[in-house]
Amino acid sequence: MGRYCITIGCPRCHGCTKKYGHRHGRQRYRCLTCGYVFRRQKTKLPVSLRDFNAFRDYALKAVNQEALTKRLKLSRQELSTRFNWFLTLPPAPELINRVVLPQAAATVQPWVYGFDGKWLGRNLVLLVHRDVIHKETLWWSVATSENMAAVYQDLIALAGSGIARPKGAVTDGKPGIASVIKSIFHLDFCQRCLVHVERDLKNYLLQNSPIEATQRLRIVCLGMTEIKSLSDRDCYLSMLDRWYRRYASLLKERSYPEPGSTAKRYWWYTHGNLRRAWRLLTKDQNSLFHFLDNPLVPSTNNSLEGVNRHLRRREGMGKGKQLALMMWRLAFSRIKTDRQRLKLWAYWKRTFF
Known about the structure:
By secondary structure, the protein is an alpha+beta fold. The protein folds into three domains: about 1-40, no CATH class; about 90-190 and about 300-353, 2-Layer Sandwich (Nucleotidyltransferase, domain 5), CATH 3.30.420; about 195-295, no CATH class. It is about 45% helix and about 15% strand. The chain has 15 helices and ten strands. The chain has a five-stranded mixed sheet, with helices on both faces. Strand 2 and strand 3 (about 35-40) form a beta hairpin. It is elongated. The protein starts with 16 loop residues before the first strand and ends with a helix.
């Protein structure tokens, strides 16, 4: 097979092309996919491939701006101006899926779905959908909260992107979001992240609590992440049952306001946090230990927690640019080869210019 030159892509189907002779002194190209013949139209862009490669290094924290100014021989202001083009026009997950298909769509290997959110302040959150088996980010979007409607829209788009149905799912435990995931992917169970459950229990069951029942329940439940087998689960459930037989009355104990008090409630549960912890431990226990029945499903959401830690904020950068930089990092995490990087550059140019 002869050698040929790969260009930026076909203007019709974005497939690879090769040189196809000259006409009127200008080089022609032919698409290897659809056969379309065209001449390359060169336009003046505000950024170049060199700027794109420099921004990639900056986004992945491989080099800082000071080193980039020396490498590119640009002032810091000019470098920021060029980088602003990328921060203003972040890539969508559909664009990345055109560049490289996720393994959940490209192969028939089983995969497990994971979901989590990266908050920026109190009003913006980056929703991240991930294949926790192959450690690939499948989709992302920006929302004002981790609500059912936002997750539903993402999952509809994700399900329509050609991926196979996952063999399981793991989330941080919000029941509404878990129900949406199960309905979209037709799953019976959705594993609750045990690390998130343990973190919430520590907030409800204080270490220095003067109440004996609180201290004992804390000791029982904080060993949850050490459960690795069915026998460990049975031992844990038996300890939970013994605690309930001894301290069940505290869960129903009520308090009433003093006579003449301005309290708006007529009564309340005396040990509210204890009740919250007990409800967290006993409601839908199958979702806590689903990983024991399905070995593919992890017991925690650590795969996404690692992604969230990687999406650190840059000092002195606004929230909009912070989100754009996080989206670029998620995009670059899917790009493994130089060919895919050049393809991403070509598709990004064609989308926005």
